[in-house]
Design goal:
Strand content: over 45%
Mean pLDDT: 87
Shape: globular
Oligomer: single chain
Distance between the termini: 41 Å
Low-confidence stretches: 1-21
Number of helices: 1
Helix content: under 10%
Length: 213
């Protein structure tokens, strides 16, 4: 049976009282990966933090904030839907109905997601900050505008490919620091790792920082 849930729905979320750090909606849940062999995240605008954990469970901790507590911002917050689907080989988590125009500038989404350490991870973020720590499987990150910070176990990684349209990319690996920057597409590649996993990070406009420890 298909296991699809609409998170951030009225029955699952609650409205916090006024003055609670401007958080207007919040959700926490632990979800088994079932038969999934990959994790895929898709957020339009967010501060997205992903950490690795042992086991076979994905943890979600999502907060929706209004920078100004206006009625329009709260209304937009309640229209958001976070959908997950763990019915197939790919565990999908996606934020939907983020406003494109009115009210979008006052909304802030802060997501902390924990995923199994060795599963491949693919994340898509339109605008914002993407922080990934401890993943040992293949990693593919795509950010439109913003900053990417990645910290990975060096023994798990075989290669790293960083690609920025406009901005800077840096990599610390094997005791050395590599960097690239410019107004046109810049690519930084490293293929001297002793592990098996491949890392690929694309950022249209912004900054990429990757550290292998």
């Amino acid at each position: 049976m298909k296991k699809t849930a609409l998170i951030l729905a009225a029955s699952l979320l609650w409205v916090l009282p006024a003055g609670a750090d401007e958080v207007v909606r919040s959700f926490r849940q632990q979800i088994p990966i079932a038969n999934a062999h990959q994790i895929r995240l898709d957020f339009p605008v967010a501060e997205l933090n992903v950490d690795s954990v042992p086991g076979n469970v994905v943890g979600l901790d999502v907060k929706v904030k209004c920078r100004e507590k206006t009625g329009r911002c709260a209304d937009r917050a309640h229209e958001l839907k976070l959908v997950y689907d763990n019915s197939g080989e790919v565990f999908k988590i996606e934020m939907k109905k983020f406003p494109k125009w009115h009210g979008s500038g006052k909304l802030q989404i802060v997501a902390h997601i924990t995923v199994p350490r060795d599963l491949p991870l693919r994340a898509e973020l339109g605008v914002g900050e993407l922080n990934v720590h401890g993943i040992a499987g293949d990693l593919s990150l795509n950010l439109g505008v913003g900053q990417v910070n990645v910290d990975l176990p060096k023994e798990a990684i075989a290669s790293v490919n960083l690609d920025t349209g406009i901005g800077e990319a840096s990599l610390v690996a094997a005791g050395r620091h590599f960097s690239s920057s410019g107004l046109f597409t810049k690519e930084l590649s490293w293929t001297r790792g002793t592990g098996r996993s491949k890392v690929k990070v694309d950022c249209g406009v912004g900054e990429i920082d990757v550290v292998l420890r």
